[in-house]
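User: I want to check something. If I give you two sequences, will you return the structure for each one separately, not as a complex?

Assistant: Yes, each is folded on its own. Here is the first sequence with its structure:
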Amino acid sequence: MGIVSVVSVVVAIIGFALAALWCAVGVAGLSGRLKRNKWIGVRADDTMRSAKAFEVANRVAAPGVLIAAAITAVGAALNLAVGGVWGLVFAIGAAIASLLVIGMVSSLGIRAASSVPVEDDSAGCGSGCCSGGDDEPAAHNTDPAQDCGQSSCGSCALSGLCTNEAAQA
């Protein structure tokens, strides 16, 4: 078994794994079961602003993601069937084509998500202080959690994020 054969099998396995992942994402997006998360789906500022925008973007992109999964699976199968350097060319070409398709349908999903109206969050966390405290300026204190008038913001990374312009003056 030559080095090209071993590489062909490894590339085919990776291709089939990507095809399975993209198929699962496409089916979940099409059915509306893909929820906002950190790793998969169409992720951009417009899609992550609400659950509805994320759902719309992934429903729009899902058919293209399924097509990309099929292209990748066919490329991996051709890689195994043809073998050699040409098999690798088919697999790599299919992967590139799939990434282009996913990029195009993701941009369509982002465009669709941008047309979703922004949810009014005036009664929720979008107004006032970030941690649910009052909007009064925090007293001058060295404790970074005092920005919001609370005992803790939950993370040192949030230090200074809750200050408003009056507190900065």
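And separately, the second sequence with its own structure:
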Amino acid sequence: MRSPDCLPARYRPCRQDRVRPARPSMHIEPIQRRRRGLRLAPLVDVVFLLLVFFMLVARLDMPQTIAVQPPSASSGGTLRDSVLIRLGPDGRVDLNGSALEVPELRERIAPFLHQDAKTRFLVQTAYDAPLQSLVSVLDSLRTAGAQDLTLLEP
């Protein structure tokens, strides 16, 4: 057998008498785990499809109105049974065209109630009339015994 010195370098044993690990023929990177994030693309697709669906299903025309014929009066009732009370912006009360103060309203409506207990009182206020004046007028009508009160638009 030949001496180790005469062998070529590739056949000589290691000096430390240990075996070298074999090298792989290909270099393979270790697999790194990818972090999975929230996928928004499918969600956006579904929302878009829902939007298109509801846009196609929805009606884009104006709603139809229904023509209503109001009924005609069966009896020829008049407003002579009603008393008009107007409340001005300064709090003054006007009873069928005559001006008066709120405290004297109760005495002025008593004859109407004695004549007919079912007299209708129509109360019309100005836009800028004080609310306390309206409450005082309604309170005076109730204490006088009025049962049919109607508030009119200004």
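Because they were folded independently, the notes below concern the second chain alone. Residues 81-152 form a domain with the Nucleotidyltransferase; domain 5 fold (CATH 3.30.420.270). The chain has a mean pLDDT of 77.
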